Amino acid sequence: xxxxxKARTIIVRMVSTAQTGYFYATQRLRLGPRLAAVKYDPRVKxxxxxxxxxxxxxx
Length: 59
Fold this sequence. Notes:
mainly beta; Rubrerythrin, domain 2; four-stranded antiparallel beta sheet; 0% helix; 49% strand; elongated; Ribosomal_bL33_sf; Mitoribosomal_protein_bL33
């Protein structure tokens, strides 16, 4: 029986650096670099830097 392989992509959470708690969920390659992007945060009505954080499980 062969071992189960891991997925090529993973889902990550992009969290706003404006500390609003707003986030985007996106996919990236498992072996790729960590993501950072400038995107729109509707809570501050402005474009801000979003950085990757660990995806947390729902409670």
